Amino acid sequence: MLIAVGIHLLLLTFEVLVCDRVQRGSHFWLLVFMPLFFVSPVSVAACVWGFRHDRSLELEILCSVNILQFIFIALRLDKIISWPWLVRTCNLFL
After folding, report:
1. Measured between alpha carbons, how far is 63 from 56 in angstroms, rounded to an integer?
2. Of 36, 32, 33, 58, the residue nearest 47 (C-alpha)
3. Is the pLDDT of residue 2 over 70?
4. Which of 8, 29, 75, 76 is the Cys-Cys partner for 80 at CB 3.0 to 4.6 Å?
5. What is the 3-state secondary structure (H, E, C) of 30-65?
6. How far is CA 34 from CA 13, 14, 66, in A?
């Protein structure tokens, strides 16, 4: 329960930072995506705990699997990498 609350608070923080970035445009996308970078390891720990205790965890599995997506989207939005979006999202289908 505590892990789920922490994950939801980090997701809420991400949403607030996205709204702030879109409205003001004052900070990098990498900083906006930081809560998602913290959600992923916590989600992996929640998945391990959930599988050990026979609990179903849908949100945690999605957050733990998509860490590369979060990193590549942030890097692409900051124009650090200039790969086409198709190449960048290729790992989504693999």
Report:
1. 14
2. 58
3. yes
4. 75
5. HHHCHHHHHHHHHHHHHHHHHHHCCCCCHHHHHHHH
6. 9, 8, 14
Q: Flag whether the pTM goes above 0.70.
A: yes
Token pair listed for 55:
């609990």
The CA–CA distances, whole Å, from 80 to 36, 42, 49, 74 equal 18, 26, 36, 9
* Amino acid, single-letter form, for residue 53: H
The one-letter amino acid code at 23 reads Q
Give the number of other CB atoms < 10 A from CB of residue 62: 11
What is the tens place of the pLDDT at every residue in 51-64? Answer: 888 887 777 777 77
